[in-house]
Design brief:
The chain has three domains: 85 residues; 99 residues, Alpha-Beta Plaits (2-Layer Sandwich), CATH 3.30.70.20; 205 residues, Ribonuclease Z/Hydroxyacylglutathione hydrolase-like (Metallo-beta-lactamase, Chain A), CATH 3.60.15. It has 420 residues and is α+β, with helices and mostly antiparallel strands. The chain is built from nine helices and 21 strands. The strands form six sheets. The chain has a seven-stranded mixed β-sheet, covered by helices on one side. The chain binds iron/sulfur cluster (SF4). Iron/sulfur cluster (SF4) binds next to α3.
Length: 420
C-alpha cells in the first residue's frame, strides 16, 4: 500500500516500507528511526482491523464501508505520523540548520562543528558533517594543527589540492608537512572543506571563510573546480564552465549552501552534464534549485536519473551548443561520455586521467566496469579530436600544448592496448 508523506523525503524500497533519506543520515537518526518503526505497526493495525471487518460480513461491514473506514482511519493515523515526523525533522534541523544558516554571518561555523563530533554515526553509516575527530587522528600525521582522521576514504582530493600538506600513507591521506604560510594554510583549508567525508581537522580554530570563498577555484580562464566533493561519488571532482550563454556544471559536487551561493553569484547553472552514472551525487538538488537541464547518456540512466531532461543516444558526437560537444566514450561504463568545451577542455569523468606515478595519460584498468576493449576504441576516437586539457572526475588533470597532447594520447593508447 502506498504511503503518503507530505513534504518528507521518503522513498519506496524493495521491502515496501517508506525509508527516509537525508543528507545527514546517521546524525541524530534516532528520531527518524523511531518514527518509522512506530508508524508501521499503527498502519498494520488499521489494515488488520479493516480485514476483520471485511470477513465479519453484515450490511454495515460491506467491503465498501470497510474501505471507507480504512481510508478515514488511515488518514487520521497518517496525519499523526506526519506530525510526529515533522517534529523529528525540526529536532534534526536544530542540529544541522545552524551550519547552513549561520555560515553567512559566522565565519567560524565549520570549525564550530567540533561540538557535533560526538554525533558521529556508527561504523558504516554515512556522515556528511565537516569536521574530523581528534581522537581518531591517524598516527602518521605530522605533529601540529592539521590532521587526517581514520574516516579517510583515500579519494586523493586533498593530495592534489594541497600536495605541500597532504600525502598518502598506508592507503589513507595524512599530513606530511604542517602548512607554515598563509597561502599554505588557505590551500589546506580548501582541502578541508572539499574533503567528502569530513576527515580533515584542525586542533586550533581556523577561519575557513577565505577558503570557502575561494570556490569555485579557477583552473584556467573561465573553467573552475567547484570543490565541495561528494562522498556519494567517492569524492569525484566537479567543474563549472562559466559561459555567457549559460553556465555548465560538469558532474555533481556536494549540494551545500556556501557553494550554491557562490554559483548564484556567478550566474547560476543552466546545464548540468553528467559524465557517467557514478558521479551524479546531488544532481537532483541542483536541478531543483537552478532549474538546469541535465544531460547524460541514456545507457547510464538508472534509479534517480531516469527523468533527466536531455538523454544522449547512440555513439555519434552530439552538439549541445556551438562550443559544447558530447563525445560518447563507452568503456568505463556503458554510458560514459566526455564533454569537449571550445575544442580546448576535455571533461573525461572516469574515462581518462593523468597518472602522476606512471607519468602518462591513464585509464582505470582495474575499475573498468563495462568493457576494456570498448574503452580502448573510445579512446582511439577521442584521439582524433584536438584539445589541451584533460579534466577528470578521478585522477589528476593535465594540460599540454595540442601537439604534445596528441603525442600523449598516442602514448596512452599504446599502453592501453598492451594492458588489454
Ligand atoms: S580528501 Fe578526505 S577522504 Fe579524500 S584523501 Fe583527503 S582526507 Fe581522505
Amino acid at each position: 500500500m502506498e504511503q503518503k508523506r507530505g513534504g518528507n523525503n521518503l522513498q519506496r524500497v524493495p521491502g515496501g516500507r517508506g525509508q527516509r533519506v537525508d543528507d545527514v543520515s546517521g546524525v541524530g537518526l534516532g528520531g527518524q528511526e523511531r518514527a518509522q518503526s512506530d508508524s508501521r505497526p499503527e498502519l498494520d493495525a488499521v489494515e488488520k482491523k479493516a480485514r476483520e471487518r471485511e470477513t465479519a460480513g453484515g450490511p454495515d461491514d460491506s467491503p465498501e464501508v470497510a474501505f471507507e473506514d480504512l481510508r478515514r482511519e488511515r488518514d487520521v493515523r497518517q496525519q499523526e505520523i506526519d506530525r510526529r515526523q515533522e517534529k523529528d525533522s525540526r529536532e534534526m534541523a536544530n542540529v544541522r540548520e545552524p551550519r547552513t544558516k549561520r555560515h553567512r554571518t559566522d565565519p567560524l561555523f565549520v570549525l564550530e562543528l567540533h561540538i557535533l563530533s560526538d554525533r558521529r554515526p556508527a561504523e558504516g553509516k554515512r556522515y556528511t558533517g565537516f569536521m574530523a575527530q581528534a581522537s581518531k587522528r591517524l598516527p602518521h600525521n605530522a605533529p601540529g594543527d592539521f590532521y587526517v582522521d581514520a574516516s579517510c576514504i583515500d579519494c586523493d582530493t586533498c593530495r592534489w589540492m594541497a600536495p605541500a600538506t597532504f600525502t598518502e600513507r598506508e592507503d589513507q591521506a595524512s599530513v606530511h608537512h604542517q602548512p607554515d604560510t598563509e597561502a599554505g594554510r588557505r590551500r589546506a583549508l580548501m582541502a578541508l572543506v572539499s574533503c567528502p567525508t569530513g576527515s580533515i581537522g584542525t586542533m586550533e580554530k581556523q577561519d575557513p571563510t577565505r577558503a570557502i570563498e575561494a570556490f569555485p577555484d579557477r583552473v584556467h580562464d573561465n573553467v573552475f573546480h567547484t570543490g565541495f566533493h561528494s562522498e556519494s561519488s567517492f569524492g569525484a571532482t566537479s567543474y563549472l564552465v562559466a559561459r555567457e550563454q549559460g553556465n555548465v556544471l560538469v558532474d555533481s559536487p556536494r549540494f551545500t549552501m556556501p557553494l550554491v551561493r557562490r554559483l548564484e553569484d556567478l550566474g547560476g547553472v543552466s546545464m548540468m552534464f553528467l559524465t557517467h552514472r557514478d558521479d551524479v551525487a546531488d544532481h537532483r538538488k541542483f536541478r531543483e534549485h537552478f532549474d538546469c537541464e541535465r544531460v547524460m547518456h541514456e545507457r547510464d540512466l538508472g534509479h534517480g536519473t531516469r527523468d533527466i531532461e536531455r538523454p544522449i543516444r547512440g555513439e555519434d558526437p552530439v552538439v549541445l551548443d556551438r562550443d559544447l560537444l558530447v563525445i560518447p566514450t563507452p568503456g568505463h561504463t556503458r554510458g560514459s561520455a566526455c564533454l569537449l568545451y571550445r575544442d580546448e577542455f576535455l571533461f573525461t569523468g572516469d574515462h581518462l586521467a593523468w597518472n602522476e606515478t606512471r607519468g602518462h595519460i591513464y585509464a582505470f584498468r582495474s575499475a573498468c566496469w563495462y568493457d576494456w576493449a570498448t574503452l580502448v576504441r573510445s579512446s582511439e576516437k577521442l584521439a582524433s579530436y584536438s584539445f589541451e586539457w584533460i579534466l577528470p572526475g578521478h585522477g589528476r588533470r593535465c594540460h599540454f600544448p595540442r601537439e604534445r597532447m596528441a603525442a600523449e594520447m598516442d602514448k596512452a593508447l599504446s599502453w592501453m592496448r598492451e594492458a588489454a
